[in-house]
Amino acid sequence: MPTQPLTAHLAPDPLGDARDLHASIAALRRLLIAQSRQFEAIERRLSPARSPAETGALRLRALKGGSV
Fold it and tell me: Quick check: helix, strand or coil at residue 3?
């Protein structure tokens, strides 16, 4: 229920509101994915160096999990 009276030229547009909400959610999702990648990169830089076998195993796990 609206909290303000609607005028004729400001008719409610539920479909437009839904599209705006969907676009906002998609933008936030992209932002969170980018931020997550940045945190992972920082974590990789700060963590001790791994052996080639450990690096390969991590990459294989990431590929199987679908995160790469």
Answer: coil
